[in-house]
Amino acid sequence: MTNKGPEEEHPSVTLFRQYLRIRTVQPKPDYGAAVAFFEETARQLGLGCQKVEVAPGYVVTVLTWPGTNPTLSSILLNSHTDVVPVFKEHWSHDPFEAFKDSEGYIYARGAQDMKCVSIQYLEAVRRLKVEGHRFPRTIHMTFVPDEEVGGHQGMELFVQRPEFHALRAGFALDEGIANPTDAFTVFYSERSPWWVRVTSTGRPGHASRFMEDTAAEKLAFEEQLQSWCQAAGEGVTLEFAQKWMHPQVTPTDDSNPWWAAFSRVCKDMNLTLEPEIMPAATDNRYIRAVGVPALGFSPMNRTPVLLHDHDERLHEAVFLRGVDIYTRLLPALASVPALPSDS
């Protein structure tokens, strides 16, 4: 037995597999196809759709479900559209076929990171709209490019633009990581990535000179890097491709009304949460840096961590459970009462 016929498959799973087949793979993602996919989905769901080109060829697609009280800040549901490269010879199935085996596992690049979450957002909104719900706060879903290579042509630019500020985001959700246990991991901060590009030209010298005029405000590690370059001889320089100095932390106690709403739903659904600092670096760091509290959450428990790995896969039941979870989370978050920061 291989793929089930479409008549037997949950329509949310069918949409998920359609999105997985779009080759948004680095280093040359088909962003145009992804944008067209979200435009068509917005039309089907009756959502507003805005396209913001933050750099030539790099479009952030914003789908909007307006709330009933426009004076309140909004909920931002973020996901990135690009996926990391594949080595097809190490895969059991074509990584862009979205093959589903007889047990219900869907094999595809992006199955965990993070096309599942994009579709879970959309399908939760679909369910809530079909049931006739409206909530005080507006819900924006942003689908951004470039995250897997640093977000420099994506969220880093978007948060500085007037279109982002016009969203009036009060709280954001973005990606997390699968958890092989019964628990769900939720991330309240991130590590501070330093990406260093070292350039060495010419013949190596024999100098052993340390930095002169050391600035006291510089970190000792940065002094060490510079001293290594000097010690290597003439023509060796470094530049920081990325340098984060002040990671932002989203409080995970009831002093934070967003956390209170989020954790209350999880408690009501008997979900065990494990709050952690994200071991990677996601677009949440750009969102938090402009003052928006954010959590990283991909509702995948009892699932091996396979992001960026060969045979990346997700069970359809875990995916559908995630839709259920967001269908409960979104009403709670979009109904958080007015806060001082809303005015």
Write the H/E string, N to C: HHEEEEEHEHHEEEHEHEHEEH
Largest sheet: 6 strands, mixed
User: Structural class of the secondary structure composition?
Assistant: alpha/beta
**What CATH architecture of the largest domain would you give?**
3-Layer(aba) Sandwich
What is the number of beta strands?
A: 13
Beta-strand fraction estimate: 15-25%
The pLDDT mean sits at 91
Write down the overall geometry: globular
Brief overview:
The protein is of the alpha/beta class and 343 residues long.
Overview of this structure, please?
With 343 residues, the chain is of the alpha/beta class. A hairpin with a 4-residue loop joins strand 4 (99-100) and strand 5 (105-107). A six-stranded mixed sheet has the order 1-2-6-3-7-12. A three-stranded antiparallel sheet has the order 4-5-13. Helix 3 packs across helix 9. The protein has helices at residues 11-20, 31-45, 115-130, 155-158, 162-167, 220-232, 257-268, 284-289, 316-334; strands spanning 48-55, 58-65, 74-80, 99-100, 105-107, 139-144, 169-174, 184-190, 194-200, 236-243, 273-278, 294-296, 313-315. Residues 203-219 have low confidence and may be disordered. The protein has nine helices and 13 strands. The chain is 29% helix and 22% strand. It has two domains: 6-193 and 244-342, 3-Layer(aba) Sandwich (Aminopeptidase), CATH 3.40.630.10; 194-242, no CATH class.
